[in-house]
Design goal:
alpha/beta, about 40% helix, about 20% strand, globular
Amino acid sequence: MVTPPHAPRVKVCCITSVDEARMAIEAGADALGLVSAMPSGPGVISEELIRVIAAMTPPPIASFLLTSHQRVAEVVAQQRRCRTNTIQLCDRLMEGTYAELREALPGVAIVQVIHVHGRESVAEAEAAAPHVDALLLDSGDQRLPTRELGGTGRTHDWQVSAELCRAVRAPVFLAGGLRPDNVRTALEVVSPWGVDCCTGVRTEGRLDAGRLRAFMVACRAETLRGERVSA
């Protein structure tokens, strides 16, 4: 397990405009999630807009391209169009390997999503972790007729997520139904390297500055609590 830093990294996902990107950056986001075409879920924007937002995102903030593609060649082509510095694979690779993806896109970070259904997700994470830069635990379901690959607003079993974090050495982001009123508990239970918020910081689909500030404050409050305990 990678020991979390004192402050959990915060990824604000489903960014839908340049204004939302600026709002997230001003609030202290460490990463922006930019959603390309998906079979379901919120926040999908055009590849042209993804490229614009990625280009205006200052370092060291990460720009994540959320992709539903499962073939390496398609993922590579999409990243070259969008020019983000990170790829978030929202489903399993079905054609090609992580090594081929890394060779084709040197310098681009790879994050694999694990949709947590039960303890079998731990084995899936252990298989992927050595080949990627980070894992992201979410509450989608690829088994449905219309695949859910994120943005469900649902939590999953955090006890399984905690076990998964202990089992792997890669950094782990926790996603799925995180809100200002539950993220502190999530951090206590799971102890992830970072957290990912989407629906929980929105009102009627729009990024809500007040909810986002409250989310950030809750993350910092948990950090301060942990520092007091360790002292």
